[in-house]
Design brief:
alpha+beta, about 20% strand
């Protein structure tokens, strides 16, 4: 059955460009499946609507793929460029477009899309949407709360401390990882190997948020496991050409080698997939997510975080894992849509 679908992307998150790249891919996939899908930027909206909103869906056409730039977008410049909107964060006519759709496919990344606020707003409009609900998103996005949930359910996660802006930082064990509490796409993350590097790392993280996590650094292999419904997808291993899996290495083609299925023995694979499902349930997530791990040299593995709206760009991990499971990009979008309609 053909549906009217708004693909909501963009917004004001530092991951805005990634979101638009995901959104363009999703929109074109949904169109290829016969749906009437329209890509809408949460922040810019659609300044003018026809008298019959359904015309927007009837005129739906493919969009140009969006390429992620090497640097995060200039948020202040984007804010200055818009002259009107429904609110500070929502552009003109976004509510009307979402209410006219059969479902909203969320392609947002970062705080605006993954902290539960947009989900709560859509709930208030009585609009169906893809993915987890507001409660699950809020829990997963707050990294310290998520780590507490992991510990409560027996899921190993790196120890760390939570800092607020202006609070002195106790001397951490080195090396350590400094990261914003609720960010994504590795923005503001630093690996600190010497005490002299700590101040700059904290400044970079606090530039994005007022709360920061300082975690023990676990040396090992970077892996991720997508969850689709009640199914754990094949694991994927991320091997950056240099450094760690930061913003550049995530979204610039060729910057990292990504192997799926990951080259692990069957027991380790099965155990990590079970841990991914356990993390998914611990955070009360729905439909789909991606769970990130570090596999230490001694064979133990640590759950780092859950992504409730994982990237759907051309280089993103979840589509690669789905491909390894025999699901094309369009088939993955179709399953996310079907599972979301069932929730």
């Amino acid at each position: 059955m053909s549906m009217k679908i708004i693909v909501l992307a963009g917004g004001l998150s530092p991951e805005r460009d990634v979101s638009l790249s995901s959104g363009s891919g999703i929109t074109n996939a949904l169109l290829s499946l016969g749906h009437r899908a329209v890509l809408v930027d949460l922040f810019y909206g659609m300044p003018e609507l026809p008298s019959d909103v359904d015309t927007v869906f009837l005129q739906a056409t493919p969009v140009e793929p969006y390429r992620v730039s090497q640097a995060a977008p200039d948020r202040e410049a984007i804010i200055a460029s818009r002259t009107e909107g429904e609110s500070d964060h929502i552009g003109p006519n976004v509510s009307a477009l979402c209410k006219a759709a059969d479902i909203v496919f969320l392609a947002l990344h970062g705080a605006e899309g993954e902290d539960g606020r947009v989900q709560a707003w859509l709930d208030g409009l009585d609009v169906r949407y893809t993915g987890s609900d507001a409660r699950g998103c809020a829990l997963a996005m707050h990294k310290e709360a998520a780590k507490a949930a992991f510990r409560e359910h027996g899921i190993l996660t790196p120890p760390g401390i939570l800092l607020e802006k202006g609070q002195p930082c106790p001397t951490p064990r080195l090396p350590c990882v400094v990261k914003p509490l609720s960010g994504g796409s590795s923005l503001g993350i630093s690996i600190v190997r010497e005490q002299a590097e700590l101040a700059d790392a904290l400044a970079a993280a606090f530039a994005l948020e007022d709360s920061v996590l300082v975690e023990d650094y676990i040396e090992g292999r970077e892996l991720s496991c997508g969850v689709l419904g009640e199914r754990a997808l094949p694991l994927i291993e991320i091997i950056p050409n240099e450094g760690f899996y930061d913003y550049h290495n995530k979204y610039q083609p060729g910057a990292a080698l990504e192997v799926s299925p990951a080259e692990l023995d069957e027991r380790t694979t099965a155990t990590m997939q079970a841990a991914a499902l356990a993390a998914f349930h611990a955070l009360r997530l729905k439909v789909y997510a991606r769970i990130d791990f570090i596999l230490a040299r001694d064979g133990s593995f640590y759950c780092l975080e859950a992504n409730t709206l994982p990237g759907m760009t051309a280089t993103s991990l979840l589509p690669q894992e789905a491909q390894a499971a025999g699901l094309s990009y369009a088939a993955l979008c179709a399953q996310i849509l079907a599972l979301s309609l069932e929730k």
